[in-house]
Please model this.
Amino acid sequence: MSTLEQRYFRGDAEDASHHVYSFLTCRLAHSIPFSAREQLMRYRCSCEQQRQSADGLGQESAADISAQLFRFWDGLLGTSPGPTWLGHPAVAEFTQVSLHAMEGVLCRLEGYTILPTHLHVCYSQDLALRSGPAPTHVSDALKTPVAHFAARVLDLRGPFWQEEDYHRILRGRREVDSILRYIRRDAVRSGHAAHPADWPWTWCRGEEVTPRMLP
Model:
């Protein structure tokens, strides 16, 4: 059984009221084409060499190198010529509704952006729940209904999502704020909008949610 307690709670060493903040990226199947994978592998090897050189420089340097690799990987997703099923308005809207359906049940949403090839979600979970759902449950609860809906609406065959997700535990408020800024600007960075406010599928806590399918 996988629970928050088993994954993160360490007895007296943890504050029972502490929140775990997570950053999740889910991408469509075949969203990184074979033509880009060699480029990605070369960059990954370069980052690994930097990481090995930085072992004596502390965790912050290693984290910076990991962030460089993620930005490069996310840039490939943003310009991918692969499937763009999440860009279909009905699928994007259903994905947004599915995200908000998890609010207060599996997690607390902090922010997200839904792009044609992938999505980013920042969320938190309360360790005081002890036996609450593990972070992997958030991904499963989102991906399964979206895949079924998209297959029906778009008449798709085969896998909708790439099986592996990118998931990272965020350490501290500074990293959470940095991720939320990244989420807010991702549609601009990938060329889908001129300004963050122009992209209808980006949301951060404190903003109004206005998809038609929400009551």
Remarks:
- Helices lie at 4-8, 34-53, 59-78, 89-101, 135-154, 173-189.
- The two ends are 35 Å apart (CA to CA).
- The chain has two domains: 4-29+84-204, 32-81.
